[in-house]
Amino acid sequence: MFKKILIANRGEIALRVIRTCREMGIKTVAVYSTADAESLHVKFADEAVCIGPPPSNQSYLKMSNIIAAAEITNADAIHPGYGFLSENAKFSKICQEHGIKFIGASPEMIEKMGDKATAKATMKAAGVPCVPGSDGLLESLEHAKQVAKESGYPVMMKATAGGGGKGMRAIWKEDELEKAWESARQEAAAAFGNDGMYMEKLIQEPRHIEIQVVGDAYGKACHLSERDCSVQRRHQKLTEETPSPFMTDELREKMGLAAVRAAEYIKYEGAGTVEFLVDKDRNFYFMEMNTRIQVEHPITEQVIDYDLIREQILVAAGVPISGKNYLPQLHAIECRINAEDPYNDFRPSPGKITTLHAPGGHGVRLDTHVYAGYTIPPNYDSMIAKLITTAQTRQEAINKMKRALDEFVIEGIKTTIPFHRQLMDEPAYVEGNYTTKFMETFKMNDPAE
Ligand code: MV4
Hints:
The chain has helices spanning about 10-25, 40-45, 65-75, 90-95, 105-115, 115-125, 140-150, 175-190, 250-265, 295-305, 310-315, 395-405, 415-425, 425-430; strands at about 5, 25-35, 45-50, 75-80, 100, 155-160, 170, 195-200, 205-215, 220-235, 235-240, 270-280, 285-290, 330-340, 340, 345-350, 350, 355, 365-370, 375, 385-390, 410.
């Protein structure tokens, strides 16, 4: 087993990894930018190394500084968390070359799954359902027109290097195609330095339902059921839950099997997520595979009583998995609390937290690195806490979430707490009747009421 793990991240996820390492008797090294000197991950780790100034590209993304920190502290593994270097093939490779175990995917796996057209072709070969469309990349505007005609409009054009909706265009009729082709390619070239495009039939009002998988070093994989992440705004998830209110036992079995087949086909090692689009008739289609631990992993941990970070560490150390699949035994909901103003187009609201009262009690989990007196730097993601409630039923988890949100006091900055509180009373949400389009029509109530 590893003796010392360096956590190449910040915020709540750095703290989350440190907590499991402590429980496993593994020493920890935090790295931090000068903006994060007062952060809890620095205080809770056994050692801490400053890796640079606030901008991410000079600190949390600076591979040479992170490797140097691992070498001077004698860390034998690096946990990258999510974001930053977690899906960076070059960093995974550099760790390998330095004899430091990267607790994440191999460089080859990251590359294969990072290129969406390649990932899709791989999944199709594995027998995982995919959205009908082009076989690989579009070679020209004429080719795009031909594929769209064959598939039938509406279609979706997607950047192969994409993610987060960049370089993606819905096209409803042929006369829109040329403009979409030009603008999507330009956007992708600017964002990723890669203007490769592929095409799919458009799935209207889809749900985003993902399956958590874990694979070991011996080619065995298992699934840990689903998370419904359909409540998103501009491709940012706001809340997630498991089980999905749209799920049936039959669909869970089919999607779980497909995800395990996907993971075993590519000999996936570690914790990963297979994302699917699910249409109104409960057909499901492979969308992307994430080769990292995800923000929303705690809801899965809550409903099956399973520490995903511990499992990542065990698998990275060569421990085999049991191979059994896991079904949700409870219901869990996560609300992402962001330092943003929900009354003002979710505008970022960094600054000093003057008052903080954290909710607690039975079935309430709060993953956060912030405290009263902490100043949220403007340089990073605006998520400051994840509030997770767990109960026997969905309605009880919602009731518990309302109670926990009512107890949660954060002063000094604006947060998305009022948004979540309103959401928990929204009829469509309470009925479990929501798709990825839900936030397009959502309006905050007048705060005076
Ligand atoms: C789609 C789609 C409809 N049809 N593909 C958005 C992010 C990218 N990873 C894939 N996305 C979508 N792909 C087809 N063929 C609709 C979306 C989509 C979406 C998906 C999941 C969660 C939120 C979304 C919001 C808008 C569009």
